[in-house]
TrEMBL record:
Keywords: Acyltransferase, Lipid A biosynthesis, Lipid biosynthesis, Lipid metabolism, Repeat, Transferase
Protein name: UDP-3-O-acylglucosamine N-acyltransferase
Organism field: Shinella curvata
Molecular function per GO: UDP-3-O-[(3R)-3-hydroxyacyl]-glucosamine N-acyltransferase activity
Pathway participation: Bacterial outer membrane biogenesis; LPS lipid A biosynthesis
Substrates-to-products reaction catalysed: a UDP-3-O-[(3R)-3-hydroxyacyl]-alpha-D-glucosamine + a (3R)-hydroxyacyl-[ACP] = a UDP-2-N,3-O-bis[(3R)-3-hydroxyacyl]-alpha-D-glucosamine + holo-[ACP] + H(+)
Length: 355
């Protein structure tokens, strides 16, 4: 069957040029004119592919790899077979990511769903009171509400909805089917398909009779520059304050951010995380997948939270926590080791009784 390329290989980048662009060093400058066209894991790399390694565990895969070149730390150069060109890097993982951007620039953000050449599709609806700077692209079936403002170079995908009075900065991508309302969005923000930004937060008061009465949600969502928000993630607007996503923060798919949450700069939040309302999260915080964060607590700068943790109380800056309820990582690992030991003991005793 003929292979379908959603992201066709690059025409080619000389290894000498790539090394210069990355600030890496060719172990043998005689290979400067060799060319790479794609990226690949070590185990299935072919001629024209670039790989990277971070440890010695790749030794066996390297022996059978057909990669043209590999990025690695100087300490690992001796592992690389003679048929693979070495680019010596102080940060091979980071440089591999940068090389991927050079080889596949179109994969860095959601692409247009149509090939229409008009900047604003006649099949889109743009309210006459909306203001779009030159160079904005709006795909078919998108809706731009009254008073919305969108900056130069931004792209609004097919079927996306930009609510009334929303402000979107320059060079942003709002992908197909996303909804942005009651929000102020900075520059160079990426919002992936199906994300929901600025809808009601979850707030109710006890009713006079059995049941609950809805509390109005009249705040905003503030998304600062260089933020990326994954597919089907939801970020609720504030109740009377703002929900804030700090500069450079990256949020995975299917994350829920409640009303009035404030997330700091350069955080990483993995899929299925739920953050309850009015939580404060510092700068550089990393939260593992499927973790739950209680409301009205504070998580300090630089905290790391293991996947599937339940955070119920404040965490001081710089700590590593895990488990349910979340506790310092050393305590969590000790508890897990004790549980494993007790389980093993019970199995052994049961086996002895059977005999």
């Amino acid at each position: 069957m003929e292979h379908t390329w959603f992201f066709p290989p690059h025409d080619g980048i000389r290894l000498g040029d790539l090394a210069d662009a990355l600030g890496a060093e060719l172990a043998d400058s005689a290979h400067a004119d060799r060319v790479v066209r794609s990226v690949s894991p070590v185990n299935r790399a072919k001629d024209g592919d670039l790989c990277y390694i971070l440890s010695r565990k790749f030794r066996a895969e390297l022996e059978t790899s057909e990669a043209t070149a590999v990025l690695c730390d100087r300490a690992l150069v001796s592992l690389i077979p003679a048929h693979i060109v070495v680019l010596v890097s102080k940060r091979p993982h980071t440089d591999f990511a940068r090389a991927g951007e050079l080889l596949y620039p179109s994969a860095m953000r959601p692409e247009a769903m149509t090939s229409a050449t008009a900047s604003i599709s006649p099949a889109a609806y743009v309210d006459p009171a909306a203001r779009l700077e030159p160079g904005v692209t709006v795909e078919p079936m998108a809706v731009i509400g009254a008073g919305a403002e969108i900056g130069e170079g931004s792209h609004i995908g097919a079927g996306a909805i930009i609510g009334a009075n929303v402000k979107i900065g320059r060079d942003c991508t709002i992908a197909a089917g996303a909804t942005v309302q009651c929000a102020l969005v900075g520059n160079n923000v990426i919002i992936h398909p199906g994300a929901r930004i600025g809808q009601d937060g979850f707030g109710y008061a006890p009713g006079v009779k059995p049941g609950m009465i809805k509390i109005v949600q009249i705040g905003r969502v503030i998304i600062q520059d260089h933020v990326e928000i994954g597919a089907n993630t939801t970020i609720d607007r504030g109740t009377m304050d703002d929900t804030v996503i700090g500069e450079g923060t990256k949020i995975d798919n299917q994350v829920q951010v409640g009303h009035n949450v404030r997330i700091g700069r350069h955080c990483g939040i993995v899929s299925k995380v739920g953050i309850a309302g009015s939580t404060r999260i510092g700068d550089g915080v990393m939260i593992g997948g499927a973790s739950g964060i209680n409301g009205h607590i504070t998580i300090g700068d630089g905290v790391q939270i293991a996947a599937m943790s339940g955070v119920v109380a404040d965490i001081p800056a710089g700590e590593k926590y895990g488990g349910v309820p979340a506790r310092p990582m050393r305590d969590f690992l000790r508890d897990m080791a004790e549980i494993a030991m007790r389980s093993s003991t019970r199995v052994q005793k049961k086996g002895g009784n059977d005999e």
